[in-house]
């Protein structure tokens, strides 16, 4: 039986879900820390257009292994669940323009009650995961979602209470979901041959030596395909640009699989790697890319033909094709291959240079085929945020005459380099130096680059060397604070429980295993509000504290989630980072009275652990929502001018000083007015004024006459006065008293009215009653009269 811990009637129960599904469902609760791991769910969709439904979160949650009694009521009906988006992965955010990234939630639309998930942008695998082009590595986007499960009172239990509900109030439990959406590839890209640089005029020059042995293999240009390996390149073909007989009589295409393999080396042991020219039906996902080689099948005589021109065509799994023109030049015999230097010069970020020595691979021996130090490896480091452009000076020697083409060495990035397109966005070679492009090294998802560099002489002979560049993280990303707004509302009079104000996501995009991505968050004032971590990932090490930055939480987890990037020039969709979701809550011992304080302003600050530390902060405004807990108050006319000024300043909205002034008004319960006995019907007798410290509808006041039969408290009237039983007066809703019947002072000179001021509050309005005494003033409307007879 599932067990939940109890922390008291007024304490919200939290459900803590294991990150990795287990054979039997279990909860994990940390009373000291109150930190959970997110429930990890995965689904797969194909590349799709915007506004396509890609997932049903309610169904995914129901099929995730959560016990039925957790999501269902006793009558088996589904409990109310609402979904809220907390964060999206960086590659999703990259689909927006920089100025649109502030509202990151606009990328995703989640129907809050049914959990239908749509993206407002197209799911294009090649754009979402550019570093995974040409691979079968799954391309994923991640969403961090919270499911609020509303449980009725009789569904809330604890282990100690048996089967008795612990509360008669509805109860909300939060399930944090780390949703991974695998974007399956569609074959929507044709193969292409990338340009080698500004000198690439669409023709690739290759070289072959006359009288070379039959079976000699020559590296052909490699095509790229942005789709996955499953949909990628399957085969190559060629067509002569002169006569079809000429090229096919001398050469054929052979295909190999591998990374960093040059065709020229296959002559050492071709049987181990050679494949049929038609690769359809092979298990492509388990093999690396296809390497095309041109094999000599007939003796080449330079006196008969000095070059071959042909068109090389690459075909993908759907027979989409891309091509490039190739010129194969026949050269005289060239005896020597370039030989890489044992030491290269590396430029550091502070402008200095240092030497790095090449390492020979394990079991390395000099190639018997070309006598070179092929595949020597150089290992070097540089900083991610370096501003330098020049990285390495390359050096390789050729024993042929340096004044001839055979002895001149040129350098280029080999097409056999892994992640070639990713490398070319960051690095290029000019002359004998390696330079950084304008993109630099910031934001790489992988902090190592392996680069295969080819040293080639003018006759086409070459040697390769590996350059392994380790990139050290820089603290160039401050923690990012993501909230659905800066202003929040809280109902007044709450006390005895920690009420949730908002969920706040914080993330740092520095490298996950670096101290630069560790951050701590705290509030400048914890008297009224607290900050508690609810869920974290990946490998989070987040510090949460109050104004004194005391350590409250220090947790680690293998959980992974792709965080959002900042809108800066260093934005890169491939970067992952640490993230945490915090609960901004009220302190359970604090009583909030809007009439005393209508607005609270706190500062949330997050600081990372880098050197120097980077800081982010957000000002959070909490407006106290009014409850109709104040009666209207009658006040004197003399105070009217003061309140009119306060109304212009918004006294009944959010200004606690004006609210206090309302409380300090001199309340009056009895009012006296005078009117001439000959006044016309409809004449204004006077006006009553009342104010309510509440706000909105709770402060909107209407006046009404209390019936003469209505009981009025004794202290509100003059018992010696007669009530207005003949209804000579009326009161408008705005408090104006008007005469509606003729008066005769000689018959009655005073009238007693009872007027009620009622607010428009809900669910119940409140009122106060005042006594009004109206004096009828005499008018000289009677002639003198003699009574009786008089004798003079």
Automatic annotation (TrEMBL):
One annotated GO biological process: homophilic cell adhesion via plasma membrane adhesion molecules
InterPro entries the UniProt entry points to: Cadherin-like_dom (IPR002126), Cadherin-like_sf (IPR015919), Cadherin_CS (IPR020894), Protocadherin/Cadherin-CA (IPR050174)
UniProt cross-references to Gene3D superfamilies, sorted A to Z: Cadherins
UniProt domain Cadherin: residue ranges: 81-193, 200-340, 391-481, 582-634, 667-786
UniProt subcellular location: Membrane
Membrane topology: Single-pass membrane protein
Listed GO MF terms: calcium ion binding
Coiled coil (residue ranges): none
Pfam family name, one: Cadherin
Keyword Calcium: yes
GO cellular component: plasma membrane
Keyword terms of this UniProt record: Calcium, Glycoprotein, Membrane, Repeat, Signal, Transmembrane, Transmembrane helix
Signal peptide span: 1-26
Main location: membrane
PANTHER family in the cross-refs: CADHERIN 96CB, ISOFORM D-RELATED, CADHERIN-87A
The name this protein goes by in its record: Cadherin domain protein
């Amino acid at each position: 039986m599932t067990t939940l811990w109890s922390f008291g009637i007024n304490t919200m129960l939290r459900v803590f879900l294991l990150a990795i599904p287990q054979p039997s469902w279990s909860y994990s609760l940390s009373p000291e820390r109150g930190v959970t791991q997110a429930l990890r769910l995965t689904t797969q969709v194909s590349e799709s257009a915007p506004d396509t439904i890609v997932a049903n979160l309610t169904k995914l949650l129901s099929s995730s292994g959560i016990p039925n009694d957790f999501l269902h009521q006793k009558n088996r009906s589904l409990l109310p669940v609402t979904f809220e988006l907390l964060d999206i992965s960086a590659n999703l955010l990259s689909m927006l323009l920089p100025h649109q990234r502030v509202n990151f939630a606009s990328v995703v639309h989640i129907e809050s009650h049914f959990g239908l998930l749509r993206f407002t942008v197209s799911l294009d695998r090649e754009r979402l995961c550019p570093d995974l082009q040409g691979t079968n590595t799954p391309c994923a986007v991640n969403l961090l979602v919270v499911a609020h499960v509303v449980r009725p009172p009789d569904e809330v239990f604890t282990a100690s209470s048996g089967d008795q509900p612990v509360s008669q109030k509805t109860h909300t439990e939060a399930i944090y979901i780390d949703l991974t959406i695998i974007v399956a590839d569609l074959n929507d890209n044709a193969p292409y041959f990338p340009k080698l640089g500004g000198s690439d005029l669409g023709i690739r020059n290759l070289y072959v030596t006359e009288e070379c042995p039959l079976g000699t293999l020559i590296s052909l240009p490699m095509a790229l395909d942005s789709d996955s390996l499953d949909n990628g390149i399957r085969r190559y073909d060629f067509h002569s640009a002169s006569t079809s007989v000429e090229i096919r009589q001398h050469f054929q295409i052979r295909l190999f699989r591998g990374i960093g393999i040059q065709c020229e080396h296959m002559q050492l042991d071709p049987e181990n790697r050679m494949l049929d020219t038609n690769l359809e039906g092979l298990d492509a996902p388990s093999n690396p890319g296809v390497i095309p080689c041109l094999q000599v099948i007939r003796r080449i005589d330079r006196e008969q033909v000095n070059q071959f021109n042909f068109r090389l065509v690459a075909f993908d799994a759907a027979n989409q094709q891309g091509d490039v023109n190739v010129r194969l030049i026949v050269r005289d015999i060239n005896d020597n291959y370039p030989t890489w230097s044992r030491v290269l010069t590396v430029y550091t970020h502070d402008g200095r240079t240092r030497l790095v020595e090449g390492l020979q691979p394990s079991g390395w021996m000099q190639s018997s085929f070309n006598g070179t130090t092929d595949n020597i490896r150089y290992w070097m480091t540089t900083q991610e945020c370096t501003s330098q452009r020049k990285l390495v000076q390359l050096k390789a020697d050729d024993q042929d005459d340096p004044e001839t083409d055979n002895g001149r060495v040129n350098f280029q990035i080999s097409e056999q380099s892994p992640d070639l397109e990713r490398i070319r966005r960051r690095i290029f070679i000019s002359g004998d130096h390696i330079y950084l492009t304008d993109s630099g090294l910031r934001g790489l998802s992988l902090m190592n680059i392996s680069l295969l560099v080819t040293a080639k002489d003018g006759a086409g002979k070459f040697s390769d060397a590996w350059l392994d560049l380790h990139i050290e993280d820089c603290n160039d990303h401050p923690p990012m604070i993501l909230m659905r707004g800066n202003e929040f509302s809280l109902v007044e009079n709450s006390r005895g429980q920690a009420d949730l104000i908002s969920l706040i996501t914080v993330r740092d995009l520095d490298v996950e295993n670096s101290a630069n991505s560790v951050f701590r968050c705290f509030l400048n004032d914890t008297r009224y509000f607290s900050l508690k971590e609810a869920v974290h990932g990946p490998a989070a090490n987040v510090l949460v504290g109050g104004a004194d930055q005391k350590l409250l939480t220090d947790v680690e987890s293998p959980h992974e989630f792709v965080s959002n990037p900042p809108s800066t020039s260093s934005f890169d969709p491939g970067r992952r980072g640490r993230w945490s979701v915090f609960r901004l809550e009220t302190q359970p011992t604090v009583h909030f009275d809007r009439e005393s304080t209508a607005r609270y302003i706190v500062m949330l600050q997050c600081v990372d652990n880098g050197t120097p530390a980077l800081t982010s902060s957000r000002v959070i405004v909490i407006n106290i929502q009014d409850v109709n807990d104040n009666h209207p108050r009658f006040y004197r006319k003399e105070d009217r001018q003061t309140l009119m000024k306060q109304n212009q300043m918004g006294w009944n909205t959010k200004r606690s000083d004006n609210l206090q002034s309302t409380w300090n008004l001199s309340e009056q319960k009895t009012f006296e007015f005078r009117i001439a006995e000959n006044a016309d019907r409809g004449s204004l007798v006077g006006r009553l004024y009342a104010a309510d410290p509440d706000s909105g509808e709770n402060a909107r006041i209407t006046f009404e006459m209390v019936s003469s039969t209505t009981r009025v408290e004794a202290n509100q009237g003059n018992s010696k006065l007669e009530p207005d039983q003949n209804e000579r007066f009326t009161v408008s809703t705005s408090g104006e008293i008007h005469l509606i019947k003729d008066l005769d002072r000689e018959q009655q000179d005073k009238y007693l009215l009872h007027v009620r001021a009622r607010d428009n509050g809900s669910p119940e309005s409140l009122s106060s009653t005042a006594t009004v005494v109206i004096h009828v003033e005499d008018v000289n409307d009677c002639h003198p009269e003699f009574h009786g007879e008089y004798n003079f």
